[in-house]
# Entry
Amino acid sequence: MRRAAVAILIAVLTCAACSSDDEPAQPSPTPPLSSASTTTAPRGNDVTTTTRAPRTPTAADLAAVRVAVQPVVSGLDSPVDVAFRPAAAGKPGTMYVVEQSGALRIVRDGRVAGTALDLSGNLSSGNEQGFLGATFSPDGKRLYVDYTDADGDSNIDEYEMRGDVADPRSRRRVMFVDQPYPNHNGGEVIFGPDGMLYIGFGDGGAAGDPHGNGQNLGALLGKILRIDPTATGGAPYSVPKNNPFVGRAGAAREVWMWGLRNPWRFSFDRATNDVWIGDVGQNAYEEIDFAKAGEQGVNWGWNPREGFHEFAGSSPAGARDPIVETSHDDGNCAIVGGYVYRGRAIPALEGVYLFSDNCNPTVFGVVQRGGRAIGPRDLGVDVTALTTFGEDRTGEMYAAARDGTVYRFVAG
# Structure
């Protein structure tokens, strides 16, 4: 997000750039994930199975979809992430909301029922800094958080859960990344259907990626990382052996996808394990990236490319274009990626990927067939200054707004 008024988060979602002319070839994808007809739980939600084949709507289906939103809770302080703890380890359906100012709030029965964690004592604030993301381990026993500390650097920490709250004495640093500038910190931290932890980092900020992090495989910035967060042999985490750049000289073993500017929110389709990434653009274009289940090592082209367009040079060899591009000419400034809807409350919406923008209140839906977009289509509902989407254990979807309200999507 960029501009300073809507900014604290217009910032959380914005800016970046640079690249090397010597582009390493993109590796052939090797499948750490596989397509599945069962429903998985990418944000630490319960794993729910279904015998239904995943539905992919047609253009006519998409044109007929109507949705609305209903408030779930209000009065929060700049909510920027919504997560649900696995019901087997806590109370079913409990919502946790990240406030950028430092608190993880417990939401139950339409009200804030308590604070699960307070990071405000060691937090940078404003624009794109602060408490940015949270997720639970698949068994619900541990909480993982993504925040920028008082020095402005990124931290991924682990906490053990005690009842509904995180035990502050159990804090363990999983990862630390120095941030050269206060913007483009990313903020997504989620468990994939393979049980690994996926972390999104922006390119480190300023504008135009001055350090060339997006195209530098040796840097963790400008990437989505894939790790096993379990402490092993004195190390705070381990790297899966089938990560795409394990064994490549000069490459960071943690890198899963690269060439990203600021992947503020990304998700796995819980019915297919396909990946959708909302990557925030520079001054002209925003993009949604799509990869089939099992693909990894994909270079999304930043900073030579912004969306479908040249930014700082020709497209790197093997780089991939987005599936959707939006323009700042249409009132956009910082894209907010969502989820493919797999709930039951809105049958017509099943298989539709939802996304929005922090400056444009319109919620859009898009469908992919063979890697090509059908849509996007205006779904007829607005959420002003939308900051993030959420997905509960049953596949129902939510959206949070800068004004402190979390909404649930319902049939329109």
